[in-house]
Amino acid sequence: MADVKRVGPCHAFLGDPTQAAGAGMTYLGHTRGDVTVAPGISIAFGRADQKGRTPLADAVYTTGPLPVVGLPLVDEEREKLNKYVHGSVLTTASGETALGFGNGFAKIALASVPTLILLPVDETAQGTNGIDADNMIVLPAAICRDFGQLTFKLPEGEDAFSPHDTQFAGLYRETDHAAAAIPTGHRVMFYGPPKALGLTWYLPAATP
Predict the structure, then answer these.
(1) More exposed terminus of the chain, fewer Cβ within 10 Å: N or C?
(2) pTM: predicted TM-score of the whole model, two decimal places
């Protein structure tokens, strides 16, 4: 087996990848810093007092992953923020737009839970706009659970930007946005192109 080396940054897209030409996906813009993916592998052990503290080999269970993606996003365009800050509202009047971060209690509808795709920058030529990238990482259902902070500071040195460190949590989804079945074992997170699962998905060009 050949070695697989992942090098470099990635592009992040959020939305519905089943729409032709990537019309349902939003490019989240530039990042500054490490984009991290923690699969959150969960294992439960069975123990018996008569056998001591060591878990038993015949009582080990996988309980499903709990993936978390960390994105240090630089872009604060209101339309982009509205795509992943659930409950937020865009209001436009007199040629100006304001983003409200929402209020009150409300259930998030399944149809509003987007797909998150991380595309390596150096694999954008693999398939149209990179949709066939070998090292793509996908959360079929992802929710923004932490926006991070909006920071005002004096620019110093080589890092003038202050990214907001956004976290997305992976959720369990049995079908994609077009009701195509996602194979068992890939319904929370998968590493590789969607066509390997028989899914027809699309990405837009990675432009702000």
Answers:
(1) N
(2) 0.94
